[in-house]
Amino acid sequence: MTPVAPDAAWNRLLALAQRPGATAIRSLFSRDAARFEKFHWQACDMLLDLSKTAIDDAAMQALLGLAEATGVMAARDAMAAGERVNNTEDRAVLHMALRAPPGAGFKARRADGGVDDASADVDATMAAMERFTRAVHAGEIRSATGETFTDVINIGIGGSDLGPFMASRAMWHEGSPMRPLYLANADAHNWELIRPRLNPGRTLVLIASKTFTTAETMANARVVRGWLEQTLGTEGMRQHLVALSTNHKATAEFGVPSDRVFGFHDWVGGRFSLWSAIGLSIALGCGWDDFIRLLAGARAMDEHFLSAPPAANLPLLLALTTVWHVNGLGLDNHAILPYDHRLSRFPAHLQQLEMESLGKRVTKGGLPVKHLTGPVIFGEPGTNAQHSFMQLLHQGTTPVPADFVLIANPSHPYAGNHRLLLANGLAQAEALLRGRGEDEVRAEMTAAGKSAEDVERLLPHRVFPGDRPSTTLLLPRLDPQMLGQIVALYEHKVFCLGVLWDVDAFDQWGVELGKQLSTSILPELLPEGRVGAHDPSTAGLIGQLRAWQGLDN
Ligand SMILES: O=P(O)(O)OC[C@H]1O[C@](O)(CO)[C@@H](O)[C@@H]1O
């Protein structure tokens, strides 16, 4: 088949999406009784159901044609081969090397033409992490007071917080070896919520920062170091410090013993780093064996992504569904609805993974993008979401595609609660699809005894438009392996979207300006400071803040 140019593939897809009735999902079911069978896939012990989207055979072919025209699979193989696919930072992207079995042979190609043996570095770090984790759990490594460590606090932000926090929340259970806590916000109220629950004599402190320069993390690290030092003294304090970083010089200057520094390379992006040393809090909190199961799950999804043909490749299919919704239908919001409270931090993790990767307006080549890119990601666990924002998804002016994640078997004995949870998750997706028309609403209100006048008055408010798209992921259970799989699924979805939209999904230049401006504002907030040259709004706000702080009376 002669290759189609990307522009032609885009034009073909957009024409299909603009057909009359292109969003009439219900009619697709009525026209094709086998729609569910044709539009759901099973791989890696999970089921992906796209039948409640408006993607039909023609649209799927056009989407797969776009994937071929943009070279998604070849780009995937280049990433796996250690090519520098993060082109603006001139780096390889090798989070797959982090969860590969020992001796996997991943190589990272360096800008100077050299090659790093990525797998050898990963294997060495994993071995050091395992030794440390098992020694802490066995009480061979003890605190400055001679006690065992019971709590571990991870000080980090962004990818040095969100991924580990999400995974620990999903994996931790009553029998887990330690209690993992997460301190991220520069706002010390975050620390004040945690501190009263901690005993310095039994708390291990992980300072998680790839650069070891992030202002919020270093400010919190200094506060917690001082808290330790008050009780343990300087030498004692140092026995409680661990650093997870690529910046060994800065960790030494901070006072972290050299044998307590666990590193990783610049080919690990922050939002893809929970599988690396950044994930040490997961291993300490939830157990080394479960951490390895988490990595094994991600590896299983890697193998699927690297081997499955495009038409059965779950990450690619999820990515193409997003292209259909964002670019075909102009729906640039996306709800993540995990119907499992252990996944309550999953939407927050995906916000960084997707929006920091795909919130781009310039192509890899530096030209303005031709098509919309990253959608706004938000979400809450079900059933909470139903009592929060689902009204808008059902009856708002613009449809919002939603991903439902349902888990067949819980890890608790409350079967009645679980059936209620699943019934609600399934019902929400069905309600979005089928809606409820005037005739049905009129009959229901009449049967309920409403007067004809009330029926007509309330009718418009109680109609559900329906034909609102959703995707469903079914998992048999949520254990570390399944968690690793679903997180890696979304990582690879993001990769595919980066290629489809021709953006660099691995840099994040957009976070720099705010950091720079905060550095210039900071001295203006000191008691001896003065309001500087800003727009009138910022200047006015600084002035009022200083007045309320009693600084400029
Ligand atoms: O791990 P570091 O270097 O402290 O960076 C923290 C986070 O800040 C960012 O650089 C910007 O949000 C993220 O990409 C990263 O995960």
UniProtKB/TrEMBL annotation:
The keyword Lyase does not apply. Gene3D superfamilies: 1.10.1390.10, Glucose-6-phosphate isomerase like protein, domain 1. InterPro entries: G6P_Isomerase, G6P_Isomerase_C, Phosphoglucose_isomerase_CS, SIS_dom_sf, SIS_PGI_1, SIS_PGI_2. Keywords: Cytoplasm, Gluconeogenesis, Glycolysis, Isomerase. It catalyses: alpha-D-glucose 6-phosphate = beta-D-fructose 6-phosphate. CDD domains: SIS_PGI_1, SIS_PGI_2. GO terms for molecular function: glucose-6-phosphate isomerase activity. PROSITE patterns: P_GLUCOSE_ISOMERASE_1, P_GLUCOSE_ISOMERASE_2, P_GLUCOSE_ISOMERASE_3. The active site is at 356 (proton donor), 387, 515. Its main location: cytoplasm. It is found in: Cytoplasm. Pathway: Carbohydrate degradation; glycolysis; D-glyceraldehyde 3-phosphate and glycerone phosphate from D-glucose: step 2/4; Carbohydrate biosynthesis; gluconeogenesis. Its EC number is 5.3.1.9. The keyword Cytoplasm applies. Belongs to the GPI family. Catalyzes the reversible isomerization of glucose-6-phosphate to fructose-6-phosphate. This is Glucose-6-phosphate isomerase. The lineage of its organism: Bacteria, Pseudomonadati, Pseudomonadota, Alphaproteobacteria, Acetobacterales.
